[in-house]
Write a structure and sequence with these properties.
Number of strands: 0
Strand content: under 5%
Number of helices: 12
Structural class: mainly alpha
Shape: globular
Length: 257
């Protein structure tokens, strides 16, 4: 028969060991550990995950102990490791870490986790609105304002409702405070950083580029997200059209090689 553990969580020791001994995060991708986690039905609460990430961010800032050390896995299956039961305070703590800590994990990994843990974007958007309502002015070129926009960067796309909720207050803030076109574009560039892949035959334009132009036109035409996003929508269409033109030129070159 399977043995029983008296502790509240059968493998709660795991988190304490991982934090206490700064273990290489590559271990998290171990198939054997994955089976153990699944079998024990173990998941971090969102509060425990915040604590866990704080320590990983500290390691990130201090410097890796050795070359092949991973602070966090490249493909961390957050839905397998962390409860999806929304804890508003913990989601906002994750946002705070991402915006204020200067580390790769904070800037690039936490937005990935937020898209998984708060897919509707409500708590993330609340955090952004609360920060912008403090009265502390964020001027053009503000790294903090850029980081607030980046909280939406790993949501599926710029028509996603969660994404819209998060970026709308950032766009409104820039318009209300008279940000220059260049300053607004700098912030817009952080709104969507989700990696995109495509494939096509040599000499052909990947369909994705044409689709993105059509989607951008539709979003602009329908005023998706409200008036606050219309300036962004125009910029996004310009970018999509430029990317399509570049893809067409590459395809033309390939056909004549």
């Amino acid at each position: 028969s399977r043995g029983q553990c008296d502790c509240p969580n059968p493998i709660g020791w795991f988190m304490e060991t991982f934090i206490g001994y700064n273990i290489n995060a590559a271990f998290l991708e171990s198939h054997e550990l994955g089976f153990l986690i699944e079998d024990a039905k173990f998941k971090f609460s969102q509060g425990e995950f915040v604590r866990f990430l704080k320590r990983r961010i500290d390691i990130d800032k201090e410097g890796k102990p050795y070359e092949r050390y991973e602070v966090m896995p490249f493909r961390f299956e957050v839905d397998k490791w962390v409860s999806t039961e929304c804890d508003s305070a913990s989601i906002k703590q994750l946002c705070q870490l991402s915006v204020t800590e200067r580390s790769f994990v904070a800037a690039y990994r936490i937005p990935e986790y937020l898209a998984e843990l708060n897919p509707e974007g409500a708590e993330v958007a609340d955090f952004v609105e609360e920060r912008l309502a403090t009265g502390e002015e964020l001027k053009e070129g503000s790294l903090e304002l850029y980081s607030l926009g980046c909280l939406a960067s790993q949501f599926p796309n710029d028509t996603d409702e969660g994404w819209i909720r998060i970026v709308r207050p950032v766009c409104k803030y820039m318009l209300d405070h008279g940000f220059s076109s260049k300053a607004r574009i700098d912030i817009y560039s952080g709104f969507q950083k989700k990696m995109k892949t495509w494939s096509s035959s040599i000499g052909e334009v990947p369909p994705m580029f044409t689709s993105r132009v059509e989607e951008a036109k539709k979003a602009l035409r329908e005023c998706l997200g409200g008036e606050e996003l219309q300036d962004y929508r125009k910029w996004a269409l310009d970018v999509a059209e430029w990317e399509l033109k570049s893809a067409q030129e590459r395809a033309e070159e390939d056909r004549h090689e």
